[in-house]
Here is the input.
Amino acid sequence: MLERLGENHVIAVQDPDGEVLLRSDCPASSFELLLAVGRLTVDESALRERYGEQFASPPAEADIAGTRDTMLAVAAYTDVRTAGHLAAGPDGDAVTLEIALKDTVVLRSVQISLEMGADSLWTQSAIQIDHAEQDWLRSAS
Here is the structure.
């Protein structure tokens, strides 16, 4: 069934740049990161394995290249700016995420896992963007 709807891809961020402000009052915590589009990776085998059956079959190299060229529009822009505020809720920690590509901004609420140490912060999240939502990517390029 998924083959009919298109492939699933895993896109990972490498070397983000920016700042994270942690406050004892959770909603006052915020971040702003700049992601270099050319440094995003597409469909690394180890990452695909993490996400289960939907990602079990590796895409063809042409599909990976197509994702970089169309969905990520690598040639159209160099950076993606993300910013957000942390919010603790009944379903766990979440981020109100702002994703900006040139003059186009999209807001999403994203569940995250968060681990805070004495001098470290580890967070992980996943964002799903389907083909219908790609119009905002294309309009920004």
